C-alpha cells in the first residue's frame, strides 16, 4: 500500500463530530459494496486499535520517514469477517434464532459460511441459533430484518426491544385496517 511507513492522519470522526489526528500504521484498503465506498484500514500506533476510515472523511495525510513492522497476527480478511458494514462501533455479542421458513436457514448458512464464522446450532425444530461477537450492530440489524418474521433476536435485550418496536411499527402500517 504505502510500504511500511507510518502515517499522520487527520480524520473527521463522524461519531464525535470533530477532526482527530492519529499516528497510524496502514494495514489495507477495502471497498464496501453495500455503500459503494472505499475505506482505509489502519492501526492507531498509541493504542493498536484497528480502525476503518471512510476515504471521504480523511482531511489530511502525511507519510512519515519512520517505518513500522506490519503486525504478523493481523489479517484483513479476519478483521472483516466479524464486520457488518464498516462502522467502528464497539463489538456486541448477539444471539439470534432463524426459523426454517422462506429459505432463511439456507441464506443464513451461506452468509455465515462466506464470512468464515462458526456454524449456527441447528435446533430440534430445524431452526438455527447463532451466537457470536460482531461489529456493526446497525448493519447486522438491517440484515436480520431482511428475514422478516422468520428471525428472532434473543440477545442483546436492547436490540431485541428495537426489533420489537420496528415490528410493531410495521403492524401499524400493514396491519388489519378493518
Write the topology of this structure.
Elements: E1 5-13, E2 18-32, E3 37-44, E4 50-54, E5 58-67, H1 76-81, E6 92-98, H2 104-114, E7 121-122, E8 128-134, H3 137-145, E9 151-155, H4 157-174
Antiparallel strand pairs: 1-2, 1-5, 2-3, 3-4, 6-8, 6-9, 7-8
Pfam family, one: WYL
Domain WCX: 93-169
Protein name: WYL domain-containing protein
Residue share in helix? 10-25%
Instruction: Give the biggest beta sheet.
Output: 5 strands, antiparallel
Low-confidence parts: none
Structural class: alpha+beta
In CATH, the architecture of the largest domain is 2-Layer Sandwich
Give a description of the structure.
- The chain has 178 residues and is of the alpha+beta class.
- Helix content is 25%, strand content 38%.
- It is built from four helices and nine strands, in the order E-E-E-E-E-H-E-H-E-E-H-E-H.
- The strands form two sheets. Strands 4-3-2-1-5 form a five-stranded antiparallel beta sheet, with no helix packed on it.
- The longest helix is centred in the last third of the chain and has 18 residues, at 157-174.
- Residues 93-169 form the WCX domain.
- Residues 6-63 form the WYL domain.
- This is WYL domain-containing protein.
Task: Describe this protein with a few key phrases.
2 domains, WYL domain-containing protein, SH3 type barrels, elongated, Alpha-Beta Plaits
Q: What's the short version?
A:
This protein is an alpha+beta fold.
Amino acid at each position: 500500500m504505502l510500504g511500511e511507513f507510518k502515517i499522520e492522519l487527520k480524520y473527521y470522526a463522524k461519531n464525535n463530530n470533530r477532526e482527530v489526528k492519529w499516528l497510524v500504521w496502514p494495514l489495507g484498503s477495502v471497498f464496501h459494496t453495500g455503500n459503494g465506498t472505499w475505506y482505509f484500514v489502519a492501526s492507531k500506533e498509541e493504542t493498536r486499535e484497528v480502525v476503518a476510515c471512510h476515504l471521504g472523511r480523511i482531511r489530511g495525510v502525511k507519510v512519515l520517514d519512520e517505518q513500522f513492522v506490519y503486525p504478523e497476527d493481523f489479517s484483513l480478511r479476519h478483521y472483516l469477517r466479524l464486520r457488518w458494514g464498516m462502522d467502528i462501533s464497539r463489538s456486541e455479542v448477539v444471539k439470534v434464532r432463524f426459523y426454517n421458513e422462506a429459505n432463511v436457514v439456507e441464506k443464513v448458512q451461506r452468509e455465515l459460511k462466506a464470512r468464515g464464522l462458526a456454524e449456527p446450532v441447528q435446533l430440534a425444530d430445524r431452526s438455527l441459533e447463532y451466537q457470536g461477537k460482531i461489529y456493526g450492530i446497525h448493519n447486522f440489524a438491517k440484515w436480520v430484518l431482511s428475514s422478516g418474521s422468520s428471525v428472532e433476536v434473543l440477545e442483546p435485550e436492547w436490540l431485541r426491544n428495537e426489533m420489537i418496536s420496528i415490528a410493531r411499527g410495521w403492524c401499524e402500517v400493514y396491519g388489519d385496517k378493518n
